[in-house]
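G., the chain you wanted modeled:
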Amino acid sequence: MELQKSLSLKRKKDNDIKFVIIALYVFSLILFGFLMDTPQEIFKGIYNILIEKDILITDYIGIGGMGAAFVNSGVLTLMFIYILYKLKINFNGATIASLFLIAGFALFGKNLINVWPIVIGVYLYSKVQKEKFSKYIYIALYGTALAPFVTQMMFSTTASFLIRLLLSLLVGISIGFVLPPLSSYLVRVHQGFNLYNIGFTAGMIGTLFVSVFKSYGFAPDPRLVWTTGNNGVLSVYLYIIFLSMIAVGFYMNNRSFKNVKDITTYSGRLVSDFVMLEGFNPTLINMGINGILATSYVLLVNGDLNGPTIGGIFTVVGFGAFGKHPKNILPIFLGVFLGSLTKMWAINDPAILLAALFGTALAPIAGEFGWRYGVVAAFVHSSVVLNVGVLHGGLNLYNNGFAAGIVAAILVPIIEAFREDEV
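Predicted structure as tokens:
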């Protein structure tokens, strides 16, 4: 009995340590924000973010300023950390991936208000099913991909405030309510080779909702808010964060890189939880390496570091605990780069930068079938992602997840039918 109690206390302590470490990294976003702007500028900027429509691509640095964007990201992510902690979630790779996804997209689409109707919708679904909310909490976090629907309904009509509020709540809660059953079903379509399964699901839901909206004459207007000129200060911050992940992981891993290489032996196909498979410390090192590679890619192709691209970088880092590692993401970068040599766009165009970063959703294809197939998948993805956004009107923040689901659903059966036996 005493041994069981001791083991339980140790597990809780280990779980708490993981929460604290990730919370400290999230808190650094808030600290960085206050270093960039004054409190007055930050609060004014956050207000501007809250009342802004969030259609892809809306860089919060351009809307509210760098300080407000990072504070919005840090505060929102800390709120979700608190919810996860209160639900007594077992901290694993899915936890890390979902939190970094929130932090990243809170720089260009998710804010302190627009995510909650979707979370409420998922919560209500859990109650109807008479199951614990903790079973669906990750779907709730990932499902905030459709948060722009909430602000779109709130700020794009001339109806009274009450009508707009009710419409935004109704749409957001409805989306959250249907996400769990659809996401469970649609994962079969791409067989786990698209790491952003909720992005694929959100694309389907978004297409349905926008189709209905358009039939009533309500069509979202495309937009592009994209900031430039901040590579210096942002690259310093990012490299410090990612190098510290490697250092902290190295120190906690008995000052070694033990098991880090083992992570690269996994394909990354859903579900590949590196925290459960190889431990938190090697996973933290892998996350830091991923972050350095993703940041360096943006800089090497002369791209811009801003809200959207940092969102992509954070996603690569977060999924460094849940399916991505250097061996399976580098072929994706290469495939998008090769596409720029033959197609009619530049490698550092906004949509293409995001295609490279978020296109690592297809990393399991490289991990399962070999790097050449990863290159092919990314090459195709870079074209598909430019054409599917019109279906959901830019209201699905995980547009690359939607495109990746389509690419994986088509390519994987073909690869399995014709590939040679190779790794």
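The mean pLDDT is 94.

Shout if anything looks off.
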